[in-house]
Design brief:
By secondary structure, this protein is of the alpha/beta class. It has one domain: Aldolase class I (TIM Barrel), CATH 3.20.20.70. The strands form 2 sheets. It has a 6-stranded parallel sheet. Helix 5 links the parallel strand 3 and strand 4. The longest helix has 20 residues. The protein binds S-adenosylmethionine. S-adenosylmethionine binds next to loops.
Amino acid sequence: MDCIEKLLQGLPLQASEFIHLIENREEYRSVLQAEAAAKTKQFFGNKVYIRGLIEITNICRNDCYYCGIRKSNANVSRYRLTDTQILQSCAEGYAAGFRTFVLQGGETQTDYVPLVRQIKKRFPDCALTLSLGEKTREEYEALFDAGADRYLLRHETADMAHYNRLHPPAMDFSNRMRCLKDLKEIGFQTGCGFMVGSPGQTPETLAKDLEFIQAFRPHMVGIGPFIPQADTPFGAQPAGTVELTLFLLSILRIMQPRLLLPATTALGSIEKGGREKGLLCGANVVMPNISPMFARENYVLYNHKLYSGAEAKEGLAILQQELSKIGRKIVFERGDYQP
Ligand code: SAM
């Protein structure tokens, strides 16, 4: 049986088969896109889930070579939203119809348990997703017990040598993988993911990413193109492509039809219409920004990041118009993973 048939039948692929698909994607693109679109329709109809993204801090103890908020970047004006500001963002998001809030930020020692409790108490019908980096198992357990429902932690790459090319020696591949395992065991709806086109990425490292996802079976996967940020060590590296991102989105949708798969801000930022293309290739989630404006302006992971118009809560009507052109519609639901 060839690898396309295996993929379409839901059978696991080997690394060499993923490499074959990636290297010959011109040949496979249209069949995989059509199948991914059919699977999305079968499992989700025309629904697109929205998540209100709050960028709670750009302070970070890590120094990832690709990231604009890395601790060594002195050109960032650092901020941390107060609990009151975060709750206000949630209230505004709630009024706009959001029923999932995503708190994302740089990695710090801050204890977010009291904040999680407050959000869940004030908005009991909402899901809360955290994306706050690596923590101990006990810290994750405390956040889960406080009511957090989901956790996003991109693994960044499933190849250890590649991981070490993207991160300084203080960051440890095995700890990141340990975090993901703990998160899933604790009971979070767990998301992993990676940048497409990060420096040093090859079909071989991508095949490891897909093999990892195939075995780990996350509930969410965030992938988007790498986009250089001028003040980072990778500031002069080429960006990843929309084309490869879309191809990988299609593979992910076929591999795991129930996945929550965002059309990421990076995909929308790198090309006009990128988000819609992502939705046509298997994505079913968008994450408009509901942070206060000063936070959006300073949460600069990469250059030319979108945070207004259809990428923000003020632009939900524009987003709906754009989605209706591709036969999709925003739904105001929690949008949990359905096993
Ligand atoms: N600190 C948390 C963590 O480590 O998961 C969340 C914040 S981190 C900035 C969120 C994600 O942004 C990272 O996982 C990374 O994949 C993505 N990111 C960072 N720099 C990027 C860049 N230059 N281009 C595209 N995505 C980037």
